[in-house]
């Protein structure tokens, strides 16, 4: 009896697997992501800058370029992300979005005939269901007990590692405070006292930047990119230029800027990308907003 039941179960599963048609969404997503990546690299645009302009998380943009459908939300939301990405690159967003399917591919239905396998009686079904319930309960209990054990072990290990890391950081902080002041302390003291952090000190344009919140930033000094990356809250940095210094921040509300040891002012509104140009021959900086929102 058990042999006949297993025969019917595996035969039904096999027929369902063969009836499924291959999905095309994965293939189309790979084509879209490849085209967007090629165009972005041709324009020499980094993925972090695209994330600031489109307000889309970097991991979602990376998943689109790599064709990782399982890392993206529902198809209708994924279609919107593709449209925004393409429009940010200056392409036809609607054309790219329409190429990505939002409806699942139809699947053919195969009717299962009871004549293909042995006939089952109500008693057979009752025994089969009972067997499945017993197996499910045993497997579930084993998984729950294993999960609790692993969680307790991981928690103890993390606690021990955290204590060791705190002890190491305390020792390093004590040693560094005895030898010399950290660079961040020197930067804060330079902004507070009005001193120039650049020891050479003869550049016409000096910009001190203080981060109240985490923000991505790009700095160009005399036409050359001097810095590009994300800085955490509390960071203080200073740059100098002979002719022109350009500052582009992804979160303008979290950035305070002081020019030539002047009073620090907020660069812009929170969550808004903003670019500011500081020129040596102008008393006030020219502020042409490049990318906002």
Descriptive account of the structure:
There is one protein chain. This protein is α+β, with helices and mostly antiparallel strands and 293 residues long. 49% of the residues lie in helices and 16% in strands. The protein contains eight helices and eight strands, in the order ααααααααββββββββ. The protein has helices at 2-19, 25-42, 47-54, 58-66, 75-88, 93-99, 122-179, 183-193, and strands at 205-211, 215-221, 224-231, 236-241, 244-249, 255-259, 265-266, 274-279. It has a four-stranded antiparallel β-sheet, with helices on one face. The chain has a four-stranded antiparallel β-sheet with strand order 3-2-5-8, covered by helices on one side. A hairpin with a 2-residue loop joins strand 2 (215-221) and strand 3. Helix 2 packs across helix 4 (58-66) and helix 5 packs antiparallel against helix 6. The longest helix has 58 residues, at 122-179. The termini are far apart. The model is unreliable at 1-22, 105-114, 180-200 and 285-293 (pLDDT under 50).
């Amino acid at each position: 009896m058990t042999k006949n039941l297993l025969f019917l179960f595996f035969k039904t599963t096999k027929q369902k697997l063969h009836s499924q048609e291959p999905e095309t969404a994965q293939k189309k997503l790979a084509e879209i992501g490849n085209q967007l990546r090629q165009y972005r690299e041709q324009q020499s645009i980094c993925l972090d800058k695209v994330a600031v302009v489109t307000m889309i998380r970097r991991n979602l943009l990376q998943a689109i370029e790599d064709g990782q459908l399982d890392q993206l939300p529902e198809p209708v939301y994924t279609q919107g992300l593709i449209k925004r990405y393409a429009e940010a690159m200056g392409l036809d967003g609607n054309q790219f979005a329409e190429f990505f399917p939002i409806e699942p591919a139809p699947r053919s239905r195969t009717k299962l005939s009871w004549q293909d396998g042995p006939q089952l009686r109500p008693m057979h079904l009752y025994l089969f269901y009972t067997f499945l319930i017993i197996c499910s309960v045993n497997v579930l209990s084993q998984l729950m007990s294993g999960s609790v054990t692993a969680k307790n072990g991981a928690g103890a290990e993390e606690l021990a590692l955290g204590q060791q890391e705190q002890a190491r950081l305390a020792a390093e902080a004590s040693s560094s405070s005895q030898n010399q002041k950290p660079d961040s302390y020197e930067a804060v003291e330079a902004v507070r006292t009005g001193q120039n952090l650049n020891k050479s000190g003869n550049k016409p344009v000096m910009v001190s930047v203080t981060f109240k919140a985490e923000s991505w930033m790009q700095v160009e000094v005399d036409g050359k990119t001097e810095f590009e990356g994300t800085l955490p809250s509390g960071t203080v940095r200073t740059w100098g230029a002979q002719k022109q210094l350009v500052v582009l921040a992804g979160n303008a509300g979290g950035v305070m800027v002081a020019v030539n040891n002047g009073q620090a002012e907020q660069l812009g509104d929170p969550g808004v990308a903003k670019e500011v140009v500081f020129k040596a021959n102008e008393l006030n900086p020219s502020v042409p907003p490049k990318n906002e929102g």
